[in-house]
Amino acid sequence: MSQRKPEWLKINLVSGKELANFKELKQTMRSKTLHTVCEEAKCPNIHECWANRTATFMILGDICTRACRFCAIKTGLPTELDLAEPERVAEAAEQMGLQHVVVTSVARDDLADGGAQIFAETIKAIRRRLPLASVEVLIPDFLGNWDSLKIVMDARPDVLNHNIEAVRRMSDRVRARAKYDRTLALLKKAKELQPDVPTKSSLMIGVGETVEEILETMDDLRAADVNIMTIGQYLQPTKKHLDVVHYYHPDEFARMKEEGMKRGFSHVEAGPLVRSSYHAHEQANAAKET
Ligand code: SF4
Ligand code: SF4
């Protein structure tokens, strides 16, 4: 049974100018037929982020070939590959005046390169339109195809993000097809391919792990030379998804952040509503400054 949601997870709705920003952004996404992980994954921060004119683009369609037990994104067999999508993402980013653009995707295990080329094209299209903006990509594991990873790394994102999602013991139960050790191998390989591109990974907690296991995950990520880590509370998107086993208190998150910083991450963002792309620009800047 899921626990009752504590009061620190209450979400504030927006009004006035912020609500106008929210609506404008929604209109931009619709008019360009773009998807965002903010909407598709039912992110609890959508009001705050969109009111501040930040969003995470989700490319390669809105149907994922996997079905992770924590994720609200639709699953099935995608039928198309939209080659014009990179340009539309870049146009929208320009229209929004973004300084830091975050791009993720569904897993496209049906494609030979897993969608790597579209990621690379999207990075290049954003650079053409917004040469001063930084670009962060949150990529799938490409089923361990390092040629695909190389295609993305050759396009030189400013941050390469790939999520570990769960501690080792819970990984197979929480994620579909992804493997804990493959995630670590990808992060390590990304660093070998482009040593000066910061890497980042996110852990979602509250699904039955122990604090000890969280610390072990930090050690594993540091051993893969990961620079930025985010830790957030799992929230059950629908009754069909995994139950929440534990809601961590904000003070516990603060202690995890301390533990992470002690281990040598250049930045750790930890909190109940922290998501991989929450305040991503600030995370990237903080990592640069250290
Ligand atoms: Fe979107 Fe990320 Fe903000 Fe959530 S935290 S609303 S996914 S930008
Ligand atoms: Fe969601 Fe898993 Fe697909 Fe990622 S791979 S979009 S977490 S179902």
How would you characterize the overall build of this protein?
With 290 residues, the chain is α/β, with parallel strands linked by helices. The chain has one domain (7-289): Alpha-Beta Barrel (TIM Barrel). It is built from eleven helices and eight strands. It has an eight-stranded mixed beta sheet, with helices on both faces. The longest helix has 16 residues, at 16-31. The radius of gyration is 18 Å and the shape is globular. Bound molecules: iron/sulfur cluster (2 copies). One iron/sulfur cluster (SF4) is lined by residues 64, 66-68, 71, 73, 75, 106-107, 140, 176. One iron/sulfur cluster is lined by residues 37-38, 43, 45-46, 49, 54-56, 275, 277-278.
What is the fold's blueprint, element by element?
Layout (H helix, E strand, L loop, with lengths): L15 H16 L3 E2 H4 L5 H6 L4 E4 L25 H12 L3 E6 L10 H14 L4 E5 L7 H9 L4 E3 L6 H7 L5 H14 L5 E7 L5 H13 L4 E6 L16 H13 L4 E5 L8 H10 L1
Parallel strand pairs: 2-3, 3-4, 4-5, 5-6, 6-7, 7-8
Antiparallel strand pairs: 1-2
Helix pairs in contact: 4-5, 5-6, 6-8
The protein binds iron/sulfur cluster (SF4) (2 copies).
The site of one iron/sulfur cluster has 11 residues, from loops.
